[in-house]
Q: What sequence folds into this?
């Protein structure tokens, strides 16, 4: 590169001869040299930026093309040796009597090695006849693509499908042995089991992984090679589960309910004997998660665990229990029930006019909102919150389901005096049917806190003492009287004395407030009422009984008859001997 001197001699001499200043020549040349250097630097920078832009664009094009290819095709086998490291072993899941709920089944996968295919076009159209969801033309294009050597066609086959593929006679269609997860009872206990799917896949093996429910919660235990031959034993009773499902499905259909759930629990061990949520699904063919609509309408939604609702008057039992346990009231204490009960601009009313006063027992039996609010007013927010927290209502329930850990109750932002009164009769705080069943178990088992569990237990849980034995005995009698004299009269079952509390809660609207003519009807029951062994909670979403002259939506007409039929059906299955009502009443009198 030849650099122009800043003070060329010829121009200097000429300038001096003409009387010009020679310094201007140097300044001009210096300016031109700087501009040339700046232009050169700019050109180099622009070139580098252009090169980097082209490089990034090429990388994004390659990545986009690869992602599109992966999305449009089945997963390819990465290497032959990878299958040796994949284990499809997974322990069985059984009910409390050893009956199989989930197991592995030997099957085969179907894949194609295109270089071995003799007539790929014919094979593609034959496969389309066997598998209706396969497009024969598109499959033929894939088989004849020179860049494809390995193609997954099916991850599992039935014996009939396997034989049909054999009959095609195409040497390039090959089978890989593997195990698949099978749920032999179909939809039974679907929300408990959850489901499983294939993880890493090879030609000769496939990994089975849990995707929901017990299968996901106990993933490490079920895949542990040292425990593969030891089934996971659940507390569920398959016979009871079948009976509860059948009755609940019938009740949901007859009452035109949007959904339904039932939880049956041992009040001493916390074992969940049955858990049903409707609508449900078949875990052998688990549907995809919903992309629109309300999540609660999806068959994947577990209403018993994930459904946190304002459950209404079933919560009155805890307000009354707290008043009794703190010594604020006795069953005979008279409560002012004149209404409406005014608090600022809010008014609390009863379903009917129950007169100027009721005993605490009658507040429960007749389900007085005003009476329950009056009981809780002197107790206050701090004590109420602590009491409900001890029962576990303020946090998610510790159940062995992956969905249970993510569901939490809705609590008031500020636990005011008004909150105290509305929560006392089941509004202003949400809870789940599972938590309610555990709460009722604690109320009647002597006052010990129960942690619900899906695993079979060999002994009674050593839970903390939440209420006294005396309060527990008083609550058992009150719940018994609700059925014999109050709102749950349809739960009178010959041979099986029942105690319980109804709840008919208005449903919150999507934009705030409450919906018209839409309720959540719940019946929380215990049986046998004189010596409770089981708690049953049944909740129906927007039920309506149309057998009478006018539609009836309250729990006494909807959830109670369904619960009664469940208890009548499962009582013998649970080994309960029939007991006359006179015997039950006599035992109550002996206990008091």
A:
């Amino acid at each position: 590169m030849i650099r122009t001197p800043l003070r060329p001699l010829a121009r200097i001499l000429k300038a001096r001869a003409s009387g010009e200043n020679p310094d201007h020549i140097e300044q001009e040349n210096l300016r031109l040299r700087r501009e040339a250097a700046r232009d050169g630097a700019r050109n180099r920078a622009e070139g580098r930026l252009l090169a980097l832009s082209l490089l990034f664009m090429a990388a994004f094009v390659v990545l986009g093309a690869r992602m599109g290819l992966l999305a449009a095709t089945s997963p390819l086998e990465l290497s032959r040796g990878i299958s040796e490291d994949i284990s499809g072993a997974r322990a069985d899941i059984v009910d409390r009597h050893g009956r199989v709920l989930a197991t592995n089944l030997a099957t085969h996968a179907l894949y194609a090695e295109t270089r071995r295919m003799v007539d790929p076009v014919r094979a593609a159209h034959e496969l389309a006849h066997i598998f209706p969801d396969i497009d024969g033309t598109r499959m033929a294009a894939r088989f004849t693509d020179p860049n494809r050597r390995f193609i997954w066609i099916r991850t599992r086959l039935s014996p009939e499908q396997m034989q049909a593929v054999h009959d095609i006679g195409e040497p390039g269609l090959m089978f890989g042995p593997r195990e698949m997860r099978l749920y032999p009872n179909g939809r039974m206990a679907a929300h408990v089991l959850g489901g499983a799917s294939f993880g890493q896949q090879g030609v000769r093996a496939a990994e089975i992984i849990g995707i929901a429910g017990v299968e996901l919660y106990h993933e490490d235990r079920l895949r542990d090679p040292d425990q593969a031959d030891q089934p996971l034993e659940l507390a569920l009773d398959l016979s009871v589960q079948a009976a509860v499902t059948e009755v609940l499905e019938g009740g949901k259909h007859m009452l035109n309910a949007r959904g339904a759930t039932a939880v049956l629990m041992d009040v001493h061990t916390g074992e969940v004997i049955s858990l049903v949520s409707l609508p449900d699904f078949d875990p052998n063919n688990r549907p995809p998660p919903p992309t629109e609509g309300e999540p609660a309408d999806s068959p994947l939604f577990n209403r018993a665990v994930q459904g946190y609702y304002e459950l209404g008057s079933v919560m009155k039992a805890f307000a009354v229990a707290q008043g009794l346990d703190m010594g604020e009231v006795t069953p005979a204490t008279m409560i002012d029930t004149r209404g409406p009960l005014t608090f600022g601009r809010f008014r609390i009313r009863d379903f009917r006019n129950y007169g100027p006063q009721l005993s605490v027992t009658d507040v429960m039996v007749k389900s007085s909102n005003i009476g329950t609010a009056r009981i809780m007013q002197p107790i206050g927010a701090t004590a109420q919150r602590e009491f409900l927290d001890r029962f576990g209502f303020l946090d998610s329930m510790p159940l062995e389901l992956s969905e249970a850990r993510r569901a939490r109750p809705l609590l008031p932002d500020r636990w005011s005096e008004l909150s105290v009164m509305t929560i006392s009769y089941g509004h202003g705080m949400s809870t789940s049917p599972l938590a309610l069943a555990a709460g009722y178990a604690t109320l009647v088992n002597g006052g010990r806190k129960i942690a619900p569990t899906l695993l079979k237990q060999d002994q009674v849980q050593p839970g903390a003492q939440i209420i006294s034995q005396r309060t527990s005995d008083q609550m058992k009698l009150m719940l018994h009287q609700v059925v014999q004299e109050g709102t749950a009269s349809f739960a009178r079952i010959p041979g099986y004395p029942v105690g319980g509390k109804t709840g008919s809660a208005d449903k919150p609207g999507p934009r705030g407030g409450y919906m018209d003519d839409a309720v959540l009807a719940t019946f929380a029951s215990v049986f046998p009422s004189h010596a409770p062994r089981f708690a049953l909670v049944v909740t129906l979403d927007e039920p309506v009984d149309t057998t009478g002259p006018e539609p009836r939506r309250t729990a006494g007409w909807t959830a109670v008859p369904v619960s009664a039929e469940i208890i009548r059906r499962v009582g013998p299955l649970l080994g309960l001997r029939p007991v006359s009502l006179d015997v039950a009443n006599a035992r109550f009198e002996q206990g008091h």
User: Anything to note?
Assistant: Residues 75-84 have pLDDT under 50 and may be disordered. The CA atoms of residues 123 and 170 lie 7 Å apart. Residues 23-72 form the longest helix (50 residues). The chain has two domains: 83-140+150-168+175-233, 239-591.
